[in-house]
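Deliverable D5.2: sample structural annotation.
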Amino acid sequence: MAVPKKKTSKSKRDSRRATWNRKAAIQAQRALSLGKSVLTNQSNSFEYPSKDDEDDDE
């Protein structure tokens, strides 16, 4: 016969949410940092076509 699961404690729930929020905050910071480096032309890890490259294709 099926038995109901035990209730998860508030501390365990809060710990999981904190971990999830921390991971999201780290990803947001990395994305912001990459965006800033691309705008200032200091990015070494991200390549994208420039306007000069687009004109050469035509």
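Annotation notes: Helices lie at 10-39, 51-57. The two ends are 70 Å apart (CA to CA).
The annotation will be released with the project's public dataset once the embargo ends.
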